[in-house]
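Q: What would this complex look like in 3D?
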Amino acid sequence: MQPHTSSARAAPPDEGPRRRRVRRSALLFALIAAAFYFAFIVMTLVRGWK
Amino acid sequence: MAEPLSYAASHDDHDHKPHGWRRWVYATNHKDIGTMYLIFACTMFFIGGGMAMLIRLELFKPGLQFFDPQFFNSMTTMHALIMIFGAVMPAWTGLANWMVPMQIGAPDMALPRLNNFSFWILPFAFTLLLSSLFVPGGAPAGGWTMYPPLVLQTGASFPMLVFSIHLMGASSILGAINIVVTIMNMRAPGMTLLRMPLFVWTWLITAYLLIAVMPVLAGAVTMLLTDHFFGTTFFTAAGGGDPVMFQHIFWFFGHPEVYILILPAFGIVSEVIPTFSRKPLFGYEAMVYAVASIAFLSFIVWAHHMFTVGMPLAAQLFFMLSTMLIAVPTGVKVFNWTATMWKGSLSFEPPMLFALAFLFLFSIGGFSGLMLAMVPADYQYQDTYFVVAHFHYVLVPGSIFGIMAGVYYWLPKWTGHMYDLKLATWHFWLSAIFVNVLFFPQHFLGLAGMPRRIPDYAVQFTDWNMVSSLGGFGFGLSQLLFPYIIWKCVRGGQRIGNKAWEGAHGLEWELPSPPPFHSWTTPPSDAVIARGAAH
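A: Here is my prediction, written as C-alpha cells for the whole assembly.
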C-alpha cells in the first residue's frame, strides 16, 4: 500500500532524530499503559492472597 | 520537543489524495481519519439516542408498557456504553485528529498508520457490542459499571461485552499515544507549550489520563472474564475474592473517565468564548494549571462513587474533601470564562450559544456533584434519579454541547462553506430548552426517592416522568437538525476565507478553508504563531 502522508515519505537527513524521538516516546507510553494493565491485575491477586 | 522541521524538503505540495474507498480504508491523513471518527460518533450518538428514547418511552407511564425488564436493563447498559465509548470519546478523538495538527503547525499526526488502526478497531468493537442484542439471553444488562456478581450472570453476550471493551480500550490507548507523541514532537518551531491553544492543552492532559486509566478498565474486565470462564475468584466472595475490589478498580478508571469526557469541552469553550467576545482568554496560564489540577485530582476521588459500600470514616472524609477540592480549579475556569466575556464585544453565533449553555448547565451538573460529594447526603441520593440528573447535566450540556460548539466553530474551516446559521440557532434553542425539560425534573424525582435503572415506578413519580419523557422526545427529535445542517454545509453554502469568525485566533485560521490535504507542509513562521497565540 502506498502511504499517503507527508510524514510517511522518504525522510530528509534531519528527520532521523525526530523519528527516533517519536518512536521512543510512543513505545514508552505503550509500556506505561501495559504496566497499568498488569499492575492492577497483580495488585488484585496479591490482595486476594492475604 | 519542537525543533525546526523541514516538511518542505520532503514534500512536493501536490494534492495527491487517493480516491474511492481506498481513501477511507487506508486513510492515514489526519483530516480523513478525523472525519471518519466524527461520522462514526454521530452514528453512535443516534443509536445510543434511540435507546434513550426507548428508555423514556417505557418510563412515560408507571407499569410495564412496552418492554420486559431485562430488555429495559439492556437498553440502559447499552445506551451508556455506546454514548460514552462510541459517541463522546470518538467525537473528541475526531476533533483532535482534525484540529491538533493544524493548531500546532504540524503536517499530520506523528503516527498516521497507528491512527488508521485506532479508528478501524472501533466499528468492529461496536458491531460486536451491538450484535450482542441478538444472542440468547440478550445484550448485557448489568449496567455499564459491570459490577460483579451481577454481571457474571450475563448470558452469551458476556464475552462479547468484555472483548468489545478491550477493543474500545485498545483504540483509545493507541489514539491517546498518538496525540501525546504528536503534541510533544510535532509542534512547529516557536510553538512553545505555553503558546498552544487550550484545546491542544486539554487534549494533551486527556491523552495522559487515557493512557493511565483505560488499561485499568481492561485489567478489570480481564479479571471478570477469568472469573467467568477460568475459575478464578478475583471478585467472587465464595472463593476468597472481593466484589467491592472491582468497584474500587472500576472507579479508579471511571472517575478520570468523566474528565476524559469533559476536559476537551473545556478546551473548546476556551477557544469559542474569546472568539465571540473579541477578547483574549482571561488567565490562559491559570486555565492550563486548572485543567492539570482537575486531571490530577481525578485520580484521588474515585470512592465517592461508592460511599454506601461501607468504608472507614477517614476514607469517607478523604474522598469527600478531595472531591470538593475539584470545585476550586473548576471555579477558576468558570471565573476566567466569565471574565473573558466581561466588557467584551459579544455576539451570539451558534458556537457561542452552545458554549454559553455549557457554562450555565455544566455548572448545574457541577453543583449537584458537590451535593453528591457530601457523604451523609450521598447516602440519600445514591442510586436515585438525582444521580442520573447530575451526570446527564455534566455529559449532555457539558460534553455534547461542547462537541456541538466545536463542530459549529470549525465546520466552516473544514468545508470552506458557512452553514445555515438560522437553522443552527434553532438547533441550539430546541436543544437547550428540551435538555432542561428532560433532565431537570429528574432532580425532583431523585430527591423524592425514585430509584434509577428500573422500568417501573410508583405512581407518585408519574408527572415528572411524563415531563422528562416529553423533553427527551423533543431533545432527540431536535438533534436530527444537526446532521442535516452538516450535510447541507458540506454540499455548499456561502464561501468563506481563511477566517470564518472575525474574532478567531489560532494557526488553523491561517490555513485556507477548506485546508489542503496536507496541513502545514511548511511550518508556520514565528510571526504567524505569535499572531495565532492571542492570549
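A: To summarize the key features: Residues 1-14 of chain B have pLDDT under 50 and may be disordered. The first helix of chain B runs from residue 7 to 10.
Q: Very helpful, thank you.
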